[in-house]
Design brief:
The chain is of the alpha/beta class and 495 residues long. It has helices spanning 2-14, 20-23, 31-51, 53-63, 93-104, 197-204, 296-302, and strands at residues 75-78, 87-91, 112-116, 119-123, 126-127, 132-136, 140-144, 153-154, 170-171, 175-178, 181-187, 191-193, 216-219, 222-227, 230-232, 239-242, 245-250, 253-255, 273-278, 281-284, 289-291, 306-318, 322-327, 334-354, 362-383, 401-422, 429-441, 449-452, 454-459, 471-473, 479-481. The longest helix has 21 residues, at 31-51. Bound molecules: 2-acetamido-2-deoxy-beta-D-glucopyranose (NAG) (12 copies).
């Protein structure tokens, strides 16, 4: 514990604009101790400078971090206080666990903050606690151990009934939390790196016996804030809030290779309520964002929808899948989602709703506004035959409802097929609205606004001209022509 206090004290003292006294524990409040510590700091620094001027600058920067760490909680710890070593080789699981245990004891007094300094902090999965802030300094990288032996197994998610990729248990997440309240993960753009490469390779080679784990997964929790950090190379989905309420994800960078990184979705709000995702940059190997709420009969039984979700001001690239998806697991229902001010580039699809018979549930009250697509194969997609099931005991008569979906101010360049709404006789797409759309095409082809079993309307003129399934209204909202072909089918998947 003495070591703890020393390093924390040292750092505080070296910070500009800081009042060390507030931080200095009673053992060290004597002037003698302070002067001694300053002398040690001074001598060590001078020694390093003498060893090598260039190296000296590097070390100098480490001892005096460029930016002061803001304080979110009454008490702050440094990972090094608990024996953490940021050399990229030492395993720091115990340091994280001890630190979090210390914070757990402070819950009633406003909680605690764990500062992760610059360095490479290798660790196995660990659990967060309530009323905690995990702060990643500039240059701090938490590295996930890529040997699955270190990853604890957990029961399948109740709304999936299944480990998603394999039956039975699944690997937990690198950073995990259950039944928590008031958790902040933030920083000066420090990184949580899942070192997914080994996982993706083993997955492709079918060497894994259990489903891969996400990078960060918070379950059954409320008041979660994730901001100002980078999440990189997750083994599986990157950030997975599950059955949570009041989740804010702001100014986060999410990165994974755009090819060869299977299932590395960016953010998957799953059976979550009151979610705000804003000002993020996402470039990953699967969906940028995928809103979900459970799978087939398991999701129907669990019955927890995703609702009241606002997604805005994002830049997304998804070469393999879509910028923003809803589904395909949506059996608990998804409603009241707004997606606005997005720039989606170099992507296979821009925004997609995907579902299938057997899912049940609903997708309703979805608003897309001010989206810009650049170099996207298919812009707007609704797909109702995404026939991927947990097992054979799903109920094919459990058909999802898709309704009240609007697309306003949609622009784009270099898009092959701007719209593809593929309803079916069983799963109609109802009350779809298009307004103010102009999308530049990569090539002239017949099927550029594809529809099947869709009911809805176009207000004003849009480009490209809409399919004949939709009713036409003028800008003032007067009906011009009612469709007599809502069930007409013009879908060309061969694009
Ligand atoms: C944590 O401790 C290390 C080593 O003592 C120090 O270099 C670093 O500046 C400290 N960082 C914070 C955020 O307290
Ligand atoms: C985290 O907590 C969950 C639930 O209590 C538990 O199943 C899991 O093993 C814990 N993970 C670690 C790494 O301790
Ligand atoms: C976003 O985070 C970075 C560091 O990660 C910070 O420099 C920047 O000011 C933040 N922007 C906003 C708008 O919060
Ligand atoms: C944060 O770091 C990532 C990866 O290092 C970088 O791509 C991104 O631009 C940084 N974000 C900010 C706001 O500096
Ligand atoms: C998977 O199971 C097989 C057979 O039980 C076993 O030989 C192998 O070591 C397991 N692999 C992993 C990664 O657990
Ligand atoms: C939601 O969580 C944030 C912390 O992320 C908190 O400041 C806010 O008060 C919470 N809102 C509600 C309505 O509880
Ligand atoms: C993110 O960084 C910006 C700029 O440094 C800062 O204004 C904001 O408060 C930070 N957000 C959080 C939640 O730390
Ligand atoms: C829909 O979600 C927004 C948050 O995006 C929320 O402010 C609003 O109250 C919700 N509307 C309803 C009817 O619940
Ligand atoms: C993007 O995906 C396509 C297949 O859809 C692939 O041919 C292409 O090489 C990918 N682009 C990159 C840069 O990986
Ligand atoms: C539309 O979204 C873009 C980002 O793609 C943003 O720059 C622009 O300000 C938004 N326009 C409005 C009116 O909000
Ligand atoms: C159709 O959807 C719009 C939102 O896009 C909604 O305002 C309207 O009430 C819906 N109409 C019906 C009949 O449900
Ligand atoms: C489409 O609907 C019309 C009546 O509105 C019906 O006569 C026709 O058989 C339907 N076609 C298909 C393919 O279901």
């Amino acid at each position: 514990m003495v070591e703890t206090v020393t390093s924390s004290f040292w750092w505080r003292w070296t910070q500009p604009h800081h009042h060390p006294r507030r931080w200095v524990p009673s053992v060290f409040t004597t002037h003698k101790a302070i002067i001694t510590a300053v002398w040690i700091a001074f001598l060590v620094t001078v020694f390093w400078w003498q060893v090598d001027a260039t190296a000296g600058i590097l070390i100098f920067r480490r001892v005096f971090p460029a930016r002061e760490v803001p304080k979110f909680r009454p008490v702050a710890f440094n990972l090094t206080d608990f024996g953490g070593v940021g050399d990229g080789v030492t395993v720091n699981t115990e340091a994280f666990e001890k630190a979090i245990l210390a914070i757990a004891k402070l819950g009633k007094k406003g909680g605690g903050q764990l500062n992760v300094p610059p360095g490479y902090w290798l660790t196995a999965p660990f659990n967060l606690t309530s009323h905690m802030t995990l702060f990643l300094a500039e240059g701090a990288v938490i590295l996930g151990i890529d040997d699955e032996k270190y990853w604890p197994l957990m029961p399948p998610l109740p709304s999936y009934g299944y480990g998603r990729e394999h039956r039975g248990p699944r690997y937990g997440s690198l950073i995990h939390g259950q039944k928590l309240k008031d958790v902040i993960i933030t920083g000066h753009n420090g990184t949580i790196n899942g070192q997914g490469q080994a996982w993706w390779k083993k997955f492709r080679q079918k060497l894994l016996n259990h489903s891969r784990g996400p990078l960060v997964q918070i379950m059954w929790s409320t008041d979660i804030l994730i901001s100002n950090i980078t999440l990189q190379d997750s083994p599986f989905w990157t950030l997975h809030p599950y059955d949570c309420k009041n989740v804010t994800i702001r100014n986060v960078t999410i990165l994974a290779p755009i090819a060869g990184a299977p299932n590395t979705d960016g953010i998957d709000p799953d059976s979550c309520e009151d979610v705000l995702i804003e000002n993020c940059y996402i470039s990953v190997g699967d969906d940028g964002i995928a809103i979900k709420s459970g799978w087939d009969q398991y999701g129907i039984a669990y019955g927890r929808p995703s609702k009241n979700i606002l997604i805005r001001n994002l830049v997304i690239r998804s070469n393999v899948s879509a910028g923003v998806s809803i589904g395909s697991e949506m059996s608990g229902g998804v409603s009241n989602v707004t997606v606005e001010n997005l720039f989606i580039w170099n992507s296979r699809r821009a925004v997609r709703i995907k579902t299938a018979p057997g899912r049940g549930g609903y997708v309703r009250d979805i608003t897309y506004k001010n989206l810009t697509f650049e170099n996207v194969r298919v812009g707007i997609v609704i797909k109702t035959d995404y026939n991927e099931h947990a097992d054979e005991s799903f109920d094919p008569k459990a058909v999802p409802l898709l309704e009240n979906i609007s697309y306003t101010t949609i622009h784009g360049e270099g898009v092959r097929v701007p719209v593809q709404i593929h309803g079916s006789k069983e799963i109609w797409v109802r009350n779809v609205t298009f307004r103010d759309m102009s999308i530049g095409l990569t090539y002239k082809k017949k099927h550029i606004f594809q529809c099947a079993y869709v009911q809805g309307r176009v207000i004003g003129t849009i480009f490209p001209a809409p399919c004949k399934n939709l009713d036409l209204y003028d800008e003032q909202g007067h009906l011009i022509r009612r469709s007599d072909a809502q069930n007409a089918t013009d879908i060309d998947y061969d694009i």
